[in-house]
Amino acid sequence: MHSRRCGEVRPGVGDSGAELRLTAMGGEVARGRLKTPAISPMRRTEARRRLRLLLQRAGGRRRGSSGGMFAIIGILVVFGAVVAGYLMEHGHMGVLVQPAELLIIGGAGAGTLLIANPLRILKKVAAGAAGVFGSSHFGRERYLSTLRMMYDLLQKARRGGMLTIESDVEKPAESPVFQPFPEFTNDHHVRDFVCDTMRMVITGGVDAFDMDQMMDLDMEVQHQGTEEPVTALSTMADSLPGLGIVAAVLGVVITMGALGGPAEEIGHKVAAALVGTFLGILLCYGLVGPVSQNMAKAAAEEHAFLYVLRVLMLAFIRGQPPVVAIEMGRRAIPAHIRPTFAEVEEACRNHGGAAAAKDQVA
What we know:
single chain; mainly alpha; three-stranded antiparallel β-sheet; 3 strands; disordered C terminus
């Protein structure tokens, strides 16, 4: 398509195609346009929106992945600092390697976790502990996309009446409003919270105050569910120092049985017994305790996310237009991840315009 002697192709400014210029001996002899299929403004807007959404999601993943990285770095810093300080005092690493002490503390700690909690909470503990090393599910981009989605839903309800969104809330996986947001449809806590609330609004007969009480009750129940694994892991962490003392006492018992032996052997057994106390305290305050605190913060993030949706939907139920409801929801977002007014306005305007044009074509 390109030739240095006879011509060159330049992209056109409009939608009519590319500009073709023919030159010979350094002079221009002809100019024309290559006809290409015109792209409608609706399709161009939709393509730009999808590209922007992909870039935002990619950027959100890059930013969110730092949370898990910080957890890994923190664990390495804790154990690295302890080992480095021990080696600086010319300690021997072999003394700290006590598999029997670790088995007593870790096995007994896991046993207390099994005794105190049913299987459903144990599954939550495993999932929550694994989530500590992943990214946050409620970052800035998640809030922005949710506000954009709720704006489309509320606009549809305002223009066509509440019955127009009945199919959306009944079958969210098949809804054209919710389908572009898989993070919403895959999160059953958030999805059920929104759909159940809007279903009651469609049914009618429930005033705003009762709807607010209903959403508050739902949030409280969900928050209790997310706090259960945190409490279970925190209880296990609190038991580790005591289990370390148990391991140390057992080591002392073994040492007392070897009092007639060489002094070097007795010293080794005493050191092994003290390592039990050391491991119990270190695992409590250096690993299991911080992991449970991280899980608690993740539960608080989900609670804050549901609170934003509660404020947003309650404003709409009380008769506020979608724009005002979205702004009230934005104000409820935590300050460190709150998108600006201009960002929310641009996202809702562009996405809402594309959705409206798509509905008109359909």
